[in-house]
């Protein structure tokens, strides 16, 4: 599922659009026949056109708290904001729960939001540890790269977030080598990829 979602988003991104509100409720499945189905992106009426590849923020106008990348409300953002949301959705599928949930985005400007950032970091680090210990190492590595952000406490998580195309290549390379997922993780991976 993650791979199909990334492929749909890659199409949007290649056409200079950012979905901006990727979350499970905005992901549909179109069943073509008994053996074939495809991902359908829902709630596209608020998609953001990004002809220059980036968009200046307008805090609180689009997206859903808990699925927004940190940079979504600070400065400018690119199509990799959708990659972040796919990473959060993949964690949700693997863990069976949202890795963090807030009423307010802790990355908005203002002291009211800044005081919430340490709590976000604790939840982020806990989710990261769960993914590091994922039995399917290639999937875990891809997810960790999808949730990179510029305000992370760990240096490797502050690196640039990959594009949809780059994550697709990582996941396909992991599938080609067979990954290392087994037992209970195998079922989770089937749902996540």
Automatic annotation (TrEMBL):
Stored Gene3D superfamilies: Transferase(Phosphotransferase) domain 1
GO molecular-function terms, A-Z: ATP binding; protein serine/threonine kinase activity
Transferase keyword on record: yes
Record-level GO cellular component terms: cytoplasm
EC numbers: 2.7.11.1
Pfam families cross-referenced by the UniProt entry: Pkinase
Catalytic activity reported: L-threonyl-[protein] + ATP = O-phospho-L-threonyl-[protein] + ADP + H(+); L-seryl-[protein] + ATP = O-phospho-L-seryl-[protein] + ADP + H(+)
InterPro entries with a match to the protein in the record: Kinase-like_dom_sf (IPR011009), Prot_kinase_dom (IPR000719), Ser_Thr_kinase (IPR053235)
Limits of the Protein kinase domain: 1-173
Domain of life: Eukaryota
Broad class of enzyme this protein falls into: transferase
Keywords: ATP-binding, Kinase, Nucleotide-binding, Serine/threonine-protein kinase, Transferase
Designated name of the protein: non-specific serine/threonine protein kinase
């Amino acid at each position: 599922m993650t791979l199909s979602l990334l492929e749909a988003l890659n199409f949007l991104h290649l056409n200079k659009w950012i979905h901006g509100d990727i979350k499970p409720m905005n992901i549909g499945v179109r069943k073509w026949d008994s053996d074939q189905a495809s991902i359908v992106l829902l709630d596209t009426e608020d998609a953001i056109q990004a002809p220059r590849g980036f968009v200046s923020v307008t805090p609180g106008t689009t997206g859903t708290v808990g699925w927004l990348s940190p940079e979504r409300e600070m400065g400018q953002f690119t199509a990799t904001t959708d990659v972040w949301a796919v990473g959060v959705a993949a964690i949700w599928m693997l863990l069976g729960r949202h890795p963090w949930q807030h009423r307010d985005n802790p990355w908005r400007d203002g002291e009211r939001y800044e005081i919430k950032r340490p709590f976000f970091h604790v939840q982020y680090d806990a989710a990261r540890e769960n993914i590091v210990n994922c039995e399917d190492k290639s999937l875990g590595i891809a997810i960790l790269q999808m949730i990179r952000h510029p305000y992370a406490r760990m240096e490797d998580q502050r690196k640039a977030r990959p594009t949809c195309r780059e994550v697709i290549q990582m996941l396909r390379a992991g599938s080609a080598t067979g990954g290392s997922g087994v037992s209970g993780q195998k079922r989770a991976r089937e749902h996540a990829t």
